[in-house]
Specification:
Elements (H helix, E strand, L loop, with lengths): L1 H4 L2 H13 L2 E2 H5 L6 H13 L3 E6 L2 E6 L5 H30 L5
Antiparallel strand pairs: 1-3, 2-3
Length: 105
């Protein structure tokens, strides 16, 4: 999922979909200066990463953002943030102890 979002074009596609809801491939491709096959390749990467859903309505392919696709990243980031907070608290405690001892400041 992080690899899929590493590309700026794919990030912009996800952002457009999250702001506008469902859209056709052609409508999604409009603001980009790349071909429809290139947009389709970007969409396949996003689909494989479970960040978008695709459904067909006749000849149209409708693309929708899957917010659930970001849940794994959210959980991982939350776990990391907990560790970072603990590390910063320990650093603060260490610095306060060193200051009290007169070694800092």
């Amino acid at each position: 999922m992080f690899a899929a979002l590493a590309d700026p074009t794919r990030r912009r596609i996800v952002q457009r979909l999250s702001n506008r809801g469902e859209g056709t491939v052609t409508a999604l491709a409009k603001p980009f200066r790349i071909s429809l096959p290139a947009i389709s390749r970007h969409l396949r990467v996003l689909e494989k990463a479970q960040l978008i859903d695709r459904r067909r309505q006749g000849r149209l392919h409708l693309i929708r953002f899957r917010s659930a696709g970001l849940m794994h990243a959210r959980k991982w980031i939350a776990q990391c943030a907990t560790g970072w907070e603990f590390s910063f608290d320990r650093l603060d405690e260490l610095l306060q102890n060193e200051t009290k001892k007169g070694k800092i400041g």
